[in-house]
Design brief:
Structural class: mainly alpha
Helix content: 40-55%
Largest sheet: none
Order of helices and strands: HHHHHHHH
Length: 189
């Protein structure tokens, strides 16, 4: 006969679970801690699995991982496969590059786009990332693209600007003296 699983937790374990549910940055840990907490509150495993939108074996797996390794057992395990191209050195060069203006590095443009950044990083590191992969990396590093606000103030002639302001003031004063009509057509006397 199969062993009956015990879902009851100690007060200390409940505090750990509740802390994880509220404050853990890893969404999978929050979800799995919620499931373990629901089991402790005597919800039936099939009901918990349905609410969490997972299969019953997955729920049992989460519970076993909790029993064996505690909260860290609920975190995602490293995935197998080829490691990503963007290693620590690449990320360091990326952060150093974004911190500088393109003209400081000898470029004629003043704004980093993903394409320009990708080309520069490829020249610096020899690693060729696709634009979409670089966007994912930038998002992961919490960078976001903002449109530049163009300011042409430095190109304005202060004297011409002052003359234009004075002319505008004169026109405003003169406009109140003229008789205004709703029509441009008038009748001759």
């Amino acid at each position: 006969m199969a062993e009956r699983l015990i879902y009851q937790k100690t007060d200390e374990e409940i505090k750990i679970l509740e802390q994880a549910i509220r404050h853990d940055e890893r969404p999978e840990v929050r979800q799995r801690a919620t499931a373990i907490r629901m089991l402790h509150l005597e919800s039936h495993p099939t009901e918990v699995a349905k609410v969490m939108a997972v299969s019953l074996p997955t729920l049992y797996n989460w519970h076993a991982r909790w029993k064996k390794n505690g909260l860290e057992g609920l975190a995602n395990r490293p995935k197998s496969g080829r490691p990503g191209k963007a290693d620590e050195a690449y990320c360091r060069v990326l952060e150093e590059t974004i911190a500088k203006e393109p003209p400081e590095l000898g470029y004629a443009f003043t704004i980093w786009t993903v394409k320009r950044l990708r080309n520069h990083l490829e020249r610096q590191t020899g690693i060729n990332l696709s634009e979409s992969r670089l966007r994912v990396l930038l998002r992961k590093k919490k960078y976001r693209y903002r449109r530049p606000k163009h300011d042409l103030h430095h190109l304005q002639d202060p004297e011409a600007k002052e003359q234009a302001r004075e002319l505008l003031e004169e026109l405003k004063k003169g406009a109140s003296k003229t008789i205004s009509s709703s029509s441009l057509w008038t009748k001759r006397p």
